[in-house]
Amino acid sequence: MASTSVHPVADAFSTSGSSGLYDKARPSYPPESLSRIFTAFHQSIENNKKDGGINVLEVGAGTGIFTRLLISPPETTPEIPQINKIIAVEPGPGMREGFSSALTKKNIPVGTTGVNSEEKVQILPGTFDSIPVEDGWADAIVIAQAFHWSHGHYENALKELGRVLKPGAPLVLIWNLEDRSLPDIHPWVPKIRDIYEQFEKGTPQYRLGWWQVIFDLPEFEELYEEVWERYETKRTLSVTVDGVVERILSKSYITALSEEEKAQVEKNIREVMERERKQWDDEGKGVFKYPYETDVYIIWRKSANPHI
């Protein structure tokens, strides 16, 4: 039975997770964003005067796209602190299957039994409001491309995240988003978004900003610092038309459609891509630029020491 705190449309991710589509279609995260996050990790160590490595909790870990960056970050990012344990929490069994498969292919052992197991990386079932670690276990929490799915359960999510997060430690929220703000340069982007976003049908999406209600909740005021940080990174990715289609088909509300509806969405997308102008990287190979924005929010758990 699906958890009542997991949106029913989000359950569709299990299909794209187990099939490998999600991992294939979704982009990783830029070094600039990782630099902000790793800096926050170091600040957590300083705030807690911690010796040795840190414990990182990742909630809504999906197929481990962000997790892999914690293990093998790009050389262009600052040095990441030593990590003792990564607990990845994911409600979808298909996503957990995809997580284990993707990391195993990179020769990264993955455990499934909890914080006391020998494997550095553990993938466990759980939700934003039910996290299988002890109080104050995490030196940092990262939620990549997922926090908006706590819609309707923000109060409980804030309390549970606050329970497992050390005082003076960061709660990091990060999202990749297709950038439709440059229609003169990339005219196809807003047009394809108009095609697929009509199927959102009231599902919580990062772009809608509903999740930002957390900043006005008493649970936030009680547990987290009033001042939080936001960083934005713009970039372009190299992609083909097939890559664009796969990205769209990996979206939860598109995955949840019937096969006939998905086929029509794909047809409409390909028609737009055929006629609209693109910024080519290699026109002969059909490779062009896909504009993206990555947003990072760093929120600090309140400390018993008001000077931290």
List the helices and strands and how they pair.
Blueprint: H1 13-19, H2 21-25, H3 31-47, E1 54-59, H4 65-71, E2 83-89, H5 93-105, E3 110-111, E4 121-124, E5 140-144, H6 154-164, E6 170-178, H7 188-197, H8 218-223, E7 229-239, H9 241-249, H10 252-255, H11 259-275, E8 280-282, E9 287-300
Parallel strand pairs: 1-2, 1-5, 2-4, 3-4, 5-6
Antiparallel strand pairs: 6-9, 7-9, 8-9
Helix pairs in contact: 1-5, 7-11, 9-11
InterPro entries: Diverse_substrate_MTase, Methyltransf_11, PRELI/MSF1_dom, SAM-dependent_MTases_sf
Family: Belongs to the methyltransferase superfamily.
Keywords: Methyltransferase, Transferase
Entry keywords:
alpha/beta, nine-stranded mixed β-sheet, 308 residues, globular, Rossmann fold
Can you walk me through this structure?
This protein has 308 residues and is α/β, with parallel strands linked by helices. It has a domain of 215 residues: Vaccinia Virus protein VP39 (Rossmann fold, 3-Layer(aba) Sandwich), CATH 3.40.50. The protein is 34% helix and 20% strand. The protein has eleven helices and nine strands. Strands 1, 2, 3, 4, 5, 6, 7, 8 and 9 form a nine-stranded mixed sheet that branches. Strand 5, helix 6 and strand 6 form a beta-alpha-beta unit. The relative contact order is 0.17. The model has no long low-confidence stretch (mean pLDDT 91).
